[in-house]
């Protein structure tokens, strides 16, 4: 007896070049959103921004931008795996992305800082996370080939 062979027309396929090009563009947007948020909060509102303890780069802007890029690329890898293995991948990705965004948004509230600093830092992380989730969800639709 032959092993079950799935119908190739129903096997999900992903245009990896399109997905990762969209992931790279998302990483650029996320980095820019982080830097703009930092400049707005720190330089316009004169509120200190809480940044991750693990440093990427030598400045606060490079640190935030670097973490945003890493987050976007990890999210792209997760989306790629989900698209290859999971039914309704974008629904699962959306939930995972929103919950991860909420977790990152809550991190500043664990720091010893002023309320303004906590709220403004959380707002930056929230905007970056939502940008990543929404952009990659859109990219997923264009990268699906069947």
Explain what you see.
The protein is mainly α and 146 residues long. The chain has one domain (16-50, 57-143). Helices cover 70% and strands 0% of the residues. The chain is elongated, with a radius of gyration of 18 Å. The two termini are 29 Å apart.
Distance between the termini: 29 Å
Given the helix and strand composition, which structural class is it? mainly alpha
How many independent structural domains? 1
Give the biggest sheet: none
The ordered H/E elements are: HHHH
The mean pLDDT is 92
Our Rg estimate from Cα atoms comes to 18 Å
The amount of beta strand, in percent, is under 5%
Outline the low-pLDDT stretches. none
Please report the number of helical segments: 4
The number of E-state strands comes to 0
The residue fraction in helices comes out at 55-70%
Overall shape: elongated
Secondary-structure map:
Elements: H1 16-44, H2 60-85, H3 89-106, H4 115-143
